[in-house]
Design a protein that fits this description.
single chain, seven-stranded parallel beta sheet, 398 residues
Length: 398
């Protein structure tokens, strides 16, 4: 079948298997080249420590890149968990389904252990299935990466369904925003979340499930001595704070960060430790539809590329697991900061200067939007000049 890029309200509804193969292979190639010393001093070769890792949310974004870095960088055996829609003869799968198939193929070729379980990572059943597989095939794991991204969570104890919302907290918020499809800047007003919406978002995206995972794995004897666990967060600048850091998502991320001392208590008996990494703003399937954020990212990317500071997802995760994570480079706020380049004073000063010149009705040029549009298309396997998208492809085989 011919698979076309279909976007509705800024959300891509399709995924191209050949393009997803290219996306995943490109990330693997970057890691392999860096390990050969071909990516410069910023991305130096890894030591092959061969850890065993569990990656919760392993099929796209930071989770996928983390798994690739660990496997092809330091020879890790990995067990992954994701929740994807599989393909049918007349319907494509989700991007993560294709990414995972390509990853497993490449990792197996290198003789690395790699298995992926598909299902609801919030459920008790999945926790039990993972623990059983760890005991049978890995023994114990040295690292648990928590990178789940879902708008809905069913509480495993009460059975209640919680849905996250993307809203400011305390008062309504009005700001400039960008339509990436047209390049036009408009004004958006978002109503403030009520108390139940804030609580629901924390239930879905906060630290409760991370805590449940580590507690369960610890009690099942699945964590090796000195095991570590890490989750991902974002803070960002004042420009995006009302909708992100101080909004419902931010409240959930703060809860995630507050979970670290509890996890350290659970893991104290095995000399384990928990971390949160604050990552850089990136084009993701989620960030592309958050009001204000696409406009900020478009400006940020241009400035960071001019300064030689821009990093993609795979580059960030390489630097995290090669440098900051092993050295426990935690800053005063108790967090690892992969947003260090983004939040440099000179970078943010230039962002603010440009932002001050923007106005409603203004149109951002195609050249300035190219990186944003390309990155978003690549997440779904589209936008590669080397691929003939008018050619028939098998949706069942990436």
């Amino acid at each position: 079948m011919i698979i076309e890029e279909k976007v509705l309200h800024g959300v891509c509804l399709t995924a191209h298997p050949t393009g997803c193969r290219t996306y995943t292979t490109d990330e693997i190639t970057f890691v392999e080249d860096a390990c050969k010393g071909l990516e410069g001093d910023r991305y130096k070769p890894f030591e092959k420590t061969h850890p065993k890792a569990l990656v919760l949310g392993c099929s796209t974004g930071y989770g996928l890149s983390s798994r690739i870095v660990l496997s092809f960088g330091c020879g890790a055996d990995t067990l992954g968990v994701s929740f994807e829609r599989s393909p049918k003869k007349n319907r494509c799968a989700t991007p993560g389904w294709y990414n995972t198939k390509v990853f497993e193929e490449k990792a197996a070729h290198e003789g690395l252990y790699c298995k992926t379980l598909d299902g609801d990572a919030f459920s008790d059943a999945m926790k039990q299935q993972v623990a059983q597989l760890i005991k049978e095939e890995l023994g114990k794991v040295d690292l648990v990466i928590y990178s789940l991204a879902s708008p809905v969570r069913i509480d495993p104890v009460t059975g209640e369904t919680y849905k996250s919302v993307l809203k400011p907290v305390g008062k309504d918020f009005t700001s400039l925003s960008l339509d990436p499809a047209t390049g036009q800047i408009g004004q958006v007003t978002l109503s403030a979340a009520d108390e139940k919406q804030v609580e629901a978002t924390i239930k879905v995206m906060g630290g409760e499930d991370w805590l449940l995972w580590i507690d369960y794995l610890s009690k099942q004897g699945c964590l090796a001595d000195g095991a570590k666990t890490i989750a991902y967060s974002y803070i960002g600048p004042n420009i995006t704070a009302p909708i992100y850091r101080n909004g419902t998502i931010g409240q959930a991320k703060k809860d995630l960060e507050r979970t670290v001392p509890k996890l350290n208590g659970i893991m104290a008996g095995i000399d384990g430790k928990a971390y949160v990494s604050v990552n850089k703003a990136l084009v993701t399937r989620a960030s592309a539809v958050i009001p204000v954020v696409p406009l900020y990212i478009t400006i940020l990317y241009r400035i960071m590329k001019q300064k030689g500071l821009h990093e993609s997802c795979i580059e960030q995760m390489y630097r995290l697991y090669r440098d900051k994570f092993p050295a426990e480079m935690v800053e005063e706020d108790g967090l690892l900061h992969m947003d260090d380049f983004e939040m440099q004073q000179d970078v943010q000063d230039e962002v603010r200067k440009i932002w001050a010149t923007l106005h409603e009705g203004q149109v951002i040029g195609d050249e300035e939007l190219e990186q944003f549009r390309t990155d978003y298309a690549h997440l779904h396997g589209f936008g590669y000049r080397t691929i003939d998208y008018g050619k028939d492809v098998d949706p069942l085989n990436p």
